[in-house]
Amino acid sequence: MARSRQEISAEREREQEQSLARVEQGGIPVSAERRLRESSEQGGAFSSDLSIAGWALAHRLGLRPLSQVMGSSIYQIGYQMQAWPMTMGGNVLSELSTLSEAWNEVRRLALNRLELEARHAGADAVIGVQVRTGAHDWAQGSIEYVLTGTAVRRREGQRAQEPVLTELSVADYSNLLSAGIRPLGIVAWTSVFYAAYGAFWPAQAGGFGGVGAMGNFELPEFTAAVYSAREQVMGRLGVQAQRLGASGIVGVRIGHTVRRQDTGGAGAQQRGGVVVTFDAIGTAVADTPTAQPQPPKITIDLST
Prior knowledge:
Elements: H1 5-24, H2 30-42, H3 52-60, E1 63-76, E2 93-95, H4 97-120, E3 125-134, E4 142-154, E5 164-165, H5 170-178, E6 181-196, H6 201-205, H7 220-243, E7 248-260, E8 273-287
């Protein structure tokens, strides 16, 4: 018996409410879970972001692409309660913990949803994970984090209990497995620091009879901010890798941005500085008892 329009509309509304509740709890919408499960159970055509060469290599290596999977989150940044340096005598370097926490939480939500999609697709791993971040003018003070990759399943061997997320290409993923090295998952962190101009910066710049605005000199506060953010990030990556039982991290991608930020009121109360955002993401790996070092191959070019 055919359903009425009212029944169809009511069902859609219920599904939208369920999807919103799942997203609020860190999950994925009902429609995404249903599509991935049906694809896993019924088979059929798949979508992926693999290149033609990557797909052909996966086929030869015994990796079956299942589906393109995604993890996404749009996150509102809260107010930075920590006092910003307001006077020339204040601290010149401090972490903006609210911004750091926002970036790390939005990534955690996106990674969790990526793993959920891979699990519903019946994947052993997700390879080639790509990251896109940004902000939108229609949501002031918000940030977006999007992860996409291809869920794959090994045609032979023991199935993984949980899908392993990696940034590795098809070739790199296969090379690690063939060498007896096991990918364990993605590790990542972001740290945001604020650095104000030092108390004697005007003298360096020539304002107090210094070397002159045209002279060469380092801005040590800004250099220190980059180093401080980097050390924070690398330390966190090491902790995450240890929790996974990793022996190392491969394929680490590092990025950082520096933007001007003035604080305080007008005139003498205003203070200039920069905000440094430093992030890194990579794949944790571990050696296995079957790991064997491969001797180098000798190649002689006979064309000359």
